[in-house]
Amino acid sequence: MSHEYDYDLVVIGSGSAGLVAASFAGRMGLKAALVEKRPFLGGDCTWFGCVPSKALLHVAKTAHAARAGAKYGINAAVNDVDMQKVHDYVHDTISRVYEHETPEEIGSRGVDVILGTAEFTDTHTINITLNDDAGEKSISGNKFVIATGASPFVPPIEGLDTVDYHTNLTFFDNKELPESLVTVGGGPIGMEMSQAYSRLGAKVTVVTEKIMMNDDPEVAEHMKKVFEAEGIAFAMGHVTKVVQEGDKICVYVGEQRVAADMLLVATGRRPHVNGMNLEAAGVKYTPRGIQVDENLRTSQEHIYAAGDVTGGMQFTHYAGFQGSIAARNALLPGSSKGTTEVLPWTTFTEPEIAHVGLTEPMAEEKLGKGNFEARIFSMEEGDRAQAEDDMDGFVKIIHQDGKLLGVTVVSKRAGETINEYAMVMQNGGGVGDLSNTIHSYPTYGQISANFASKMKVERLLNSTGFKVYTKVRDTFGL
Hints:
Helix content is about 35%, strand content about 25%. The protein is α/β, with parallel strands linked by helices. Helix 8 (about 215-230) links the parallel strand 8 (about 205-210) and strand 9 (about 235).
């Protein structure tokens, strides 16, 4: 590497993408710097997203399981929820995860950690305003990776700025369970947190135009029934204004008024592109994110961007993948593609919703109607799902002549089972690969082998002249 600069690689932002990129360079024995404006590393996932939300969901699932035990002969009442202890468990979980992401831990990997706000002064130099009024510092880098992530998007709703409301940045600091909660937003964050608080005992109303809008249409229809059965109410429509009326926060959906003690705004996220003086670096961006090519290079050939700041799919595992690719492309000869169509993801409601590849609407747009087949199989086909009373779910596959193009799973173990489908798709495989693999019994994975074997037999018999009747929708009357 060039000795003209202070560092071989400078990484701005310490979320999943930034930690992976900086560690990549440090372990290569190169001189690397990681700059983070917050007083801690780890990004939103550790502090305000994946980790605390899954801990909270675990607590809520425990309460729900206790209440539901009567169905199986276990009578355990849940009369009180100590929200202080819930809060403490969530934050203890954060602390345990953070042990692997501290400045000292990252420093042990050969990375200089600098806490402060970075601004470009030219294409190879940043000025850092150090935290705790410790002055300023200027450093130069041969290569850069920008991984500043994203933050909650708060829509311009009339009156919202006049009431106390939460986003995911403050939601996990709450130490008192409200009697009622209104959530604005029906995406993954909104629905996960709504279900959690409902199960803890709050009366929850979700205000949204659509729920689970990025999933297959069957998912939204199915999950709305699940949520309503648990007591979550919906006000379907657009929020027109928010008003403080006495001790209640009132959200208006047209003329409909929804009052609650607590308000959560979960209306998506926007990339962190401001405040870095990207203009001085010659890096092109829009409010939707920093513009990158398929190799994650920005408009400057020595500056890369990875993770949420690029405006793509916002998942921790995808950001980590991109952080690795960005550092690899910046520091090693050749280049690797930093995007993929085989990206599994999970919404951790109960049941979980997991997906990889194309949804049915995406397949119609890409391939044209009639050029692929969609099949849905009930969780009832799995003996493990029967044993765990998890029949109210399904597996939906999109395939073209047996080749897997997309899979959606709705079940208690969807997040685990989706990985098998992702691996098959990553290797260009299909239904035959699922049926040819012997699966452990009884497991959720065996469901994939069951329906794959069914489809394989159908194709075999049809090819030999035997006409086998198959339903495109095997369950739910779809």
